[in-house]
Amino acid sequence: MTETLYPQHTALSLAASGVPVLPLRRGKVPFGNCPACTGNACGGRPNMKSPGPCDCPAPCHGWAAATTAPAVLVSPPWRAAWRQAVCVGYHPGGATLTVVDLDDADAIAWARTALPATRTVVTTRGEHWIYRGAMASRNAVRPGVDVKSSMAYARYLGPGIGTLTALPDAVRALAVKAPAPVRPAPPTVTVPGRSGEGKCPHRTPAYLTRGIAMAEQQITTARSAVHATVYRTFLAVLSRHGRCGCLTDADMARLFAAAQTRGETVRHCADAWANARTTLGL
Description:
Layout: H1 7-16, E1 21-25, E2 29-30, H2 70-73, H3 76-84, E3 87-90, E4 97-102, H4 105-114, E5 119-122, E6 127-132, E7 138-142, E8 145-148, E9 154-155, E10 165-166, H5 169-172, H6 205-220, H7 226-241, H8 249-261, H9 266-280
């Protein structure tokens, strides 16, 4: 009596030993949701982000459908699924187990030097190393290595050989995500102040007001070469108003804001302003 020929019998035997099981169809994947649960019409029972059994009468919701209840495993919806099943899956975390899935020879070689020996099951491509204890699951923890435990399923391929070892810290560490890189805070840029040198040659304040408005328009209507347009505009404003001291912080803020609407950063605005001042010797 083999798992391939009698997956339901294998499932009942595993369930009797406390291992939650579910049928897997071709491709070693769970069955799709039943009509009552298709498109999340059931409201997502259970919430797939939380551990817990599925309360649907059909084997829905992937790993959460795994059960140890014989009455469920032999119920009509499940019997129909077992007739189509190609193998048995189980929920390692539900059995307080963790499976380190090693997909190739390189992964196996790594495990033999990095992890303590434990019960081993040969798979079609590599090996499952099974530890006693549950943890978070995570795929691709390193090349060819997945960790399957809570909220995951694994294919049952037999009892394996060797003695179960307690889940080591070396395996737990595999599922710990590296902290996201901390992006440096944008530099605090101080808008360079006005020169305040020389006598103001302008007859009325309106002259400056018109000049700033025209500069804003020139920047905001630029269709290309925005960087160059911003620099040239800053240069023109400073050449006309930079030496007399009539430029205010509000005027410069207006120009910076106009440039930022065209995609320029505060840092670039400050650099362009500083370069224009340097060019004019301010």
